[in-house]
Design brief:
The complex is a heterodimer of chains A (332) and B (401). With 332 residues, chain A is mainly alpha-helical. Chain A has a single domain, classed as ABC transporter involved in vitamin B12 uptake, BtuC. In chain A, helix 2 packs antiparallel against helix 3, helix 2 runs parallel beside helix 4 and helix 11 crosses helix 12. The termini of chain A are far apart. Helices cover 72% and strands 0% of the residues of chain A. Chain B has 401 residues and is mainly α. Chain B has a domain of 267 residues: ABC transporter involved in vitamin B12 uptake, BtuC, CATH 1.10.3470. In chain B, strands 1-2 form a two-stranded antiparallel sheet. Chain B starts with 9 loop residues before the first strand and ends with a helix. Classes of the chains: A mainly alpha (332), B mainly alpha (401).
């Protein structure tokens, strides 16, 4: 039988990294930067958090009592934001200031970021000379997974709505907030102007460089949180190489699927999260091969959305017009 | 010169085309700088001195005859993918779907080898496999190309998504054909009969792959530089409007070029399955579809230059792998070094295309950018009052030291 009460919490947990990744990428793309480095940024965000918390747990001798609850959360969070901030800064310096090709820069960042994550994930124990068999940050993970106290007492409702760590709620708030800012505020209007037609925005007195830097770096930091959520909450603080998989690319797919709207992104992430694990719940019997075909669904759905939006050619559903192009004022 | 406070410290402008040796000089400086940074990082993590780092890397890449052959094989495969992507890139069609097109080619090859392995002699089976691989790769590229030509669908995102559809398709067939049942792996295809395997020539199993790719490189160079098709591709890449005006069928050019691109990717898949690996996995392409994008871009989409850039990236990968093995570090160390070198080269392109003028160094009329938009910036946006040229160029300052 299809167990919906067991399915929904797993679906939500699966969707949070996608939600954060796609929200970050949407903000980035609204400024006209197609950041294909998001998968790398999410890896860097995750591993930075892991490094921070590993060193902290290590310095406390691995006992949960010695750890300050505030620092337990704050250190990985800060490290994650710092790591993804630096990645975003790198991308901006190369594409905005140096006007490099965005696709190449993004792919280089993904190579670098995934390598960075796997390298430190695989070598952290050796580099720090500690004697633990694997990276398992259970104390930190417990802090990240702490749900509201009444979640376990309110039965099914509690399980469906209150059983998640704080980053899950933060993700939804961030997504809704950014949707509001992009659509309804002056900053959002300027951001969209920069993405649609930087020359026009420049003529209107909008500081292109500032907006591109701001949006891309902020986007990277949000996406980095997605990586942190994955490792600390979803994976119980256990780092295993390549476990994050292709979620970064799926987050980019989500941006298209949501036609560049983070508020739709909340629901769409749930949908994609559901599609991502649906194969576990569909009764296919012994035919394991068909399960592989089900994993295709999110991508096929994205392709269909991409084709339909380009066919209908409705203006508000298009990618930002200058997406992927760098802007040089003296070249018009 | 400080009597003009509005003048930016550094002003940038587009350069006239540099001679090729100046441009390559700048790139060389970037590569050397990157190698120094990489050496420093490596010695911090491993405690080796930087010279030893590169000695180890050279030993890893060129140390033995066998290693040189493996290096050659890997360069050939990466080069082949880069060659495949190049015609599309020259047309400014960002084919990021190399990964998927390779997998489809590999899938076509494996299908022929498994299904028809016992029914026909090798002399027939090999061409059949090649046709299947080329066809499958071409179809995989054709789908986004048709949508691009018809509805102007964003090809970057489309081809990216096609990779994962291909991956799952391969995953499906891997389970369908798995040997033994339940292992989740195909294993070596036709291990006893060797049906469909490329023949070993001159006693080396990689030589044929390398020769195929070498011929393809020259053919692609001629195609892009001297043929009418190559010219049409360049015109469409520069300006679609111009292409239409001179009577080039833009849609057809896109479709034809992408089919070529996908076909060669499919052929790479064929080389991987029939030539070297003799098996099919979802990670067969191993991210090389993306690495190839950078190889092609580094060489400015020149097929002959790609030989060098592919060699550079493979050397780094294998050299760093050797360091990682020697120090029991993670194999991903190579990706970090590759990333760093790429960042440096990407940044160096800026200095090839743009020129910097420092304040008070005989440059007349600086701050053109600032003044040109100043009358327009008449207070519509309160936060737009900062001179963007100033703030932007100050940020560049540290990079030029």
């Amino acid at each position: 039988m299809f167990d919906i009460v067991a399915f929904i919490p797993r679906m939500v947990a699966q969707s949070i990294p996608l939600m954060l990744g796609s929200t970050g990428e949407t903000i980035t793309q609204k400024s006209g930067n197609l950041n294909l480095g998001i998968p790398g940024v999410m890896y860097v965000g995750a591993i930075s958090g892991v490094i921070g918390s590993f060193l902290y747990e290590h310095s406390c001798g691995g006992s949960a009592e010695a750890m300050n609850p505030v620092l337990t959360i704050a250190i990985p969070l800060f490290c994650c934001l710092l790591g993804s901030f630096l990645m975003g800064l790198l991308y901006c310096v190369l594409t905005v200031t140096f006007r490099a090709n965005q696709n190449v820069t993004g792919l280089a960042m993904t190579t670098f970021g995934v390598g960075f994550g796997n390298f430190f994930g695989g070598s952290l124990i050796k580099l720090t000379g500690s004697d633990v068999p694997s990276i398992a940050l259970s104390a930190t993970s417990n802090a990240f997974r702490t749900s509201l106290p009444f979640a376990s007492k309110t039965g099914t409702i509690g399980k469906l709505f209150f059983s998640y760590g704080f980053l899950a709620y933060a993700a939804i708030i961030i997504s809704l907030l950014s949707a509001y800012i992009i659509r309804n505020t002056r900053v959002g209007l300027h951001l969209r102007a920069v993405g649609e037609s930087p020359a026009t925005a420049d003529a209107a007195g909008i500081n292109i460089t500032k907006y591109k830097y701001g949006a891309t770096i902020l986007g990277c930091m949000i996406a980095g949180l997605g990586g942190l959520y994955y490792v600390m909450d979803y994976a119980n603080g256990v780092w295993s190489n390549d476990a994050f998989g292709d979620r970064g690319w799926l987050a980019i797919a989500l941006v298209i699927f949501t036609i560049w709207r983070p508020d739709i992104g909340v629901l769409a992430s749930f949908l994609f999260g559901g599609l991502y694990i649906l194969y576990l719940y569909i009764p296919t019997g012994m035919n394991l091969a068909v399960k592989e075909l089900y994993k295709m669904l999110p991508y096929i759905v994205t392709i269909i959305v991409l084709i339909i939006t380009s066919m209908r050619n409705k203006r508000e559903n298009q990618p930002p017009a200058s997406l992927g192009l760098s802007y040089f004022r003296e070249e018009r | 010169m400080h009597n003009k406070p509005k003048e930016a410290l550094i002003h940038m402008s587009k350069r006239k085309a540099l001679t090729w040796y100046q441009a390559w000089g700048i790139r060389l400086i970037a590569i050397v700088a990157a190698l120094i940074v990489c050496a420093v990082i490596t010695s911090i993590t491993t405690g080796l001195n930087p010279l030893e780092v590169y000695a180890t890397m050279f030993a890893g890449a060129f140390g033995t005859k066998r290693r040189i052959w493996i290096l050659g094989k890997e360069v050939a495969i990466l080069l082949c993918i880069s060659l495949a992507l190049t015609p599309a890139f020259r047309m400014r069609f960002w084919n990021l779907g190399g990964e998927g097109q390779i997998l489809m080619g590999a899938l076509g090859t494996a299908a022929c080898m498994i299904v028809m392995g016992d029914t026909m002699p090798n002399a027939v089976l090999i061409p059949v496999c090649i046709i299947a691989a080329v066809f499958a790769g071409a179809v995989w590229a054709l789908i986004p190309a048709l949508c691009k030509a018809r509805w102007n669908t964003n090809e970057t995102l489309f081809t990216l998504m096609m990779n994962y559809v291909a991956t799952q398709l391969v995953a499906y067939f891997v389970i369908v054909w798995e040997v033994p049942k339940g292992s989740g792996k195909i294993g070596i295809i036709n291990q006893s009969s060797k049906a469909g395997w490329l023949p070993v020539i001159a006693g080396n199993r990689y030589l044929l792959n390398i020769l195929c790719v070498a011929m393809l490189t020259i053919a692609m160079y001629i195609y892009l530089t001297y043929s009418k098709h190559g010219y049409e591709i360049s015109v469409v890449g520069e300006s679609v409007a111009t292409a239409r005006y001179v009577g080039i069928k833009v849609g057809w050019t896109i479709i034809r070029t992408l089919m070529l691109s996908g076909a060669i990717c499919g052929f790479t898949g064929y080389l991987l399955v029939a030539g070297t690996d003799h098996t099919l996995t979802t990670t067969l392409a191993g991210g090389q579809g993306f690495t190839a994008v950078m190889v092609a871009w580094l060489a400015k989409f020149n097929p002959l230059g790609m030989v060098l850039s592919a060699l550079l990236l493979i050397f780094l990968g294998r050299g760093a792998g050797e360091i990682a093995t020697a120090f029991t570090l993670n194999q991903s160390f190579g990706d970090i070094l590759t990333g760093i070198i790429l960042f440096f080269i990407i940044a160096s392109e800026f200095f090839i295309n743009y020129q910097l003028h420092f304040r008070g160094h005989g440059h007349n009329g600086p701050d053109k950018g600032g003044s040109s938009s100043a009358p327009l910036a008449s207070g519509r946006a309160p936060e737009g009052e900062t001179d963007s040229a100033n703030s932007k160029e100050k940020r560049e300052d540290p990079a030029n030291v």
